[in-house]
Design brief:
The protein is α/β, with parallel strands linked by helices and 234 residues long. It has ten helices and five strands, in the order E-E-E-H-H-H-E-H-E-H-H-H-H-H-H. A five-stranded mixed β-sheet has the order 3-2-1-4-5, with helices on both faces. Helix 4 (91-104) links the parallel strand 4 and strand 5.
Length: 234
């Protein structure tokens, strides 16, 4: 499974008012492992940034004036995301800007160039209802080092989002995926004959550690720890 974590920085809040993208970054993950491949460009937006936006990302007109424009890097960007699921925090914001940029060069909306667009903010709100779920809050909650984030930067934010996503979705299904193990079907019979096993019963300390581990898995998977429920029903 190929996933791309994406972020942008912009000149303002609304593409309908003519605001443009000044930075775009995408980080690749395959089967829950970061590959080291990324896509990153600063862009000349052909306009000034609003003062409020400049305070967020610090990308001045002087710095951006000799950078490529979105139309120059668009083909490479679409090639990078092709066939992948896009994961974006507060996706409507970034997708709105990307659709605007694509429309300016008469291309189709973003959804036509990837398999799926997932809003990680929605995932975070489902896991942590009623709490702050911006990127800084999530990094603090999952003990992810964001000390380099003195200003918003698309590449750093995409990398942090990938770490946050792994932490938010760490559970039994992701454990099986990490180990490349297919879930067992209960209608599958495995018959082993003439096999002699030496059984070493767990001591009290080992049983205590095992129960603690089941509690941790059950908490991370939101009550879906199969081993714990089988143990309770036995």
């Amino acid at each position: 499974m190929r996933q791309i974590f994406l972020d942008t920085e912009t000149t303002g809040l609304d593409p309908k008012l003519g605001h443009r993208i000044v930075e775009i970054a995408a980080v690749e993950m395959c089967n829950r492992q970061l590959t080291g491949r990324h896509f990153h460009y600063y862009l000349n937006p052909e306009r000034e940034s609003e003062a409020s936006a400049l305070q967020i990302h610090g990308l001045t007109t002087e710095f951006l004036q000799d950078k490529q424009k979105f139309r120059d890097i668009c083909a490479a960007f679409l090639d990078f995301i092709e066939g992948a699921e896009l994961l974006i925090h507060n996706a409507p914001f970034d997708v709105g800007f990307l659709d605007h940029e694509l429309g300016l060069i008469r291309l189709q909306p973003l959804k036509n160039y990837c398999t799926e667009i997932t809003d990680t903010l929605i995932i975070a709100k489902e896991i942590h209802p009623g709490k702050r779920n911006n990127l800084d809050a999530l990094c603090e909650r999952y003990q992810i080092d964001n000390s380099r984030r003195t200003l918003h930067g698309a590449l750093l934010d995409a990398e942090l989002l990938a770490e946050v996503y792994l932490a938010m979705t760490r559970g039994q299904e992701s454990l099986l995926m990490d180990l490349d193990i297919a879930p067992l079907s209960f209608d599958t019979a495995i018959i082993v004959e003439n096999l002699h096993l030496t059984v070493l019963p767990a001591n009290d300390k080992e049983l205590e550690l095992h129960e603690r581990q089941l509690e941790n898995i059950d908490k991370e998977s939101k009550g879906k720890c199969l081993w714990k429920h089988v143990a309770f029903s036995a």
